[in-house]
Amino acid sequence: MTLRRLSSATLSAVRPGVVQPGYERDRVGVGIVHLGLGAFVRAHLATYTDDVLALEPGDWGIAGVSLRHPDQRDRLAPQSGLYTALQRDSGGISARIVGCLREQLVAPEDPEAVVARMADAATRIVSLTVTEKGYGHDPATGRLDVVHPDIADDVRNPAAPRSAVGFLVAALARRRHAGLAPFTVLCCDNLPHNGRLLAGLVRDFAALRDDRLSAWIDANGAFPCTMVDRIVPATTDADLAAAADAIGLTDAAPLVHEPFRQFVIEDSFVDGARPAWERVGAEPVSDVAPYEHMKLRLLNGAHSALAYLGYLAGHETIADTMADPVLAAYVAALWEHEIIPVVPAPPGADLRDYAASLSARFRNTAIRHRTWQIAMDGSQKLPQRLLSTIRERLSRGLPIPRLAMAVAAWMVYVGGVDEAGRPIDVRDPLAAQLRKAAEDNRILDMEAVFGTDLPRSDTFIAAVTHAYGLLRAVGARRALASMGES
Ligand code: CS2
Description:
Radius of gyration: 23 Å
Number of strands: 11
Structural class: alpha/beta
CATH class of the largest domain: Alpha Beta
Bound molecules: D-mannonic acid
Shape: globular
Number of domains: 2
Distance between the termini: 59 Å
CATH topology of the largest domain: Rossmann fold
Strand content: 5-15%
Mean pLDDT: 97
């Protein structure tokens, strides 16, 4: 029997037991424009928002914008924006249909439509998940990279932007002109002080256009910081089949996620306008920094370390890597001896418990999160995930053997050849420079990644050089096994 496809018209045919939008979709207007319509936001911000809409009415529908490719729109538009979120762990699988994605736009096809949507008075929030490399900033300094091709283009041609920052400034300028308040800019990427970082980029870009615009944004805008968390691997063909099986209809845009989710938000929104996310588990706080440090350094830091070392050791997924006792012992010691001692715990949190919960989440074999996927864009990820912890330890005169091992594994990885001599498909905006630097043995000089301080630290250079030598000589597993646990 051929299955029909998920859409508004077939929603009533979804299998019983599958959770459906608990509100009338047609009555929900768009209040959020989201830039970067990947799987993460659909499993995170959208599920929180869907849960709020089921509890109370509000015009908090999401218009999702793809900044590059039409694929997501092409999959979602025929489904009226509906899609399946499959939650998976050892306890099994459960499915829900998410309904709050009300529009899909593709920026390169019609940048004006995107600016108009963002500038519409009904839009109160513009949220973003455009990944670390999507901000056009220098990862080491956090400042706008004015020679970044998309940023430079948008400065020359502000009416038809390509970059996220270019869209934000174009739409904010239009709102100012129309006498409207700005929207709140809600950055949901894994960047340090993400709201503040993005505010700085928007300010710098706006100032290139008009100082009065940047002053208006400073005076009236809001860029709350967030800590967002849910493990959501890229969707595979097997996931499409699992979704069809679960809901009894075909779905071209399902996603798979773990049960856990966390959303910590600095509660400063323009006019206080936002969905009541706290009613469904989000945590509004006055200072996100300790939550962010905990998450970026313990979760993402360990993720990146496991991705490079696990990949080199021949493991396909994080769960496979955690099933290898040598790698599991390494990450446990990395948390215990090198990360936890220098990360302050958020109020009421215990970092050992947090690490234990991460260990369980990483071992979830129902989630196939590929080491190769997490290894992507390391030049943009290392500073906030690993190097900030390294800086903290060096400033206290503490040793960094395991952190150095993770950095060294990244160096081997971006060199482009694995331990068996096979090529590695390295995806990184700096891939070409990294490869060249690896050939010339000058990676540690790269200021875009390491800043100006680390290349001058003898302790750092010695630790990473030692780890690199060991990885090259004996491979990842034996190098880690030789480290011991204390
Ligand atoms: C991962 C993150 O791909 C990656 O780099 O470390 O996407 C991670 O799964 C999320 O931040 C979890 O919240």
